[in-house]
Structure to design on (92 residues):
């Protein structure tokens, strides 16, 4: 796609809302999505600019282990009789 040169166009600064010649606006250093004038230009944050991204990959990864469904609960010691309410059929 071709664009017009913009040599005769005007544009509005995204930060101060003043009108400037289109070619005088530039991408902001801190937020490149903004088109700003010379006075509104903000330098990129030196901390963010010089920061190395955090490492995320493991050096020696291992394959995933499948987690099976645990076996049903079986008490090792049976419940003592008479401590629980009798079942509905009249038993103890
Ligand atoms: Zn401005």
């Amino acid at each position: 796609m071709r664009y017009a040169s913009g040599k005769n166009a005007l544009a509005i600064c995204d930060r101060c809302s003043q009108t400037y010649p289109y070619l005088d606006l530039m991408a902001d250093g801190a937020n490149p999505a903004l088109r700003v004038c010379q006075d509104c230009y903000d330098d990129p944050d030196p901390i963010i600019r010089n920061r190395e991204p955090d490492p995320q990959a493991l050096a020696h990864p291992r394959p995933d282990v499948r987690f099976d469904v645990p076996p049903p609960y079986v008490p090792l010691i049976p419940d003592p009789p008479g401590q629980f309410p009798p079942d509905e059929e009249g038993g103890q």
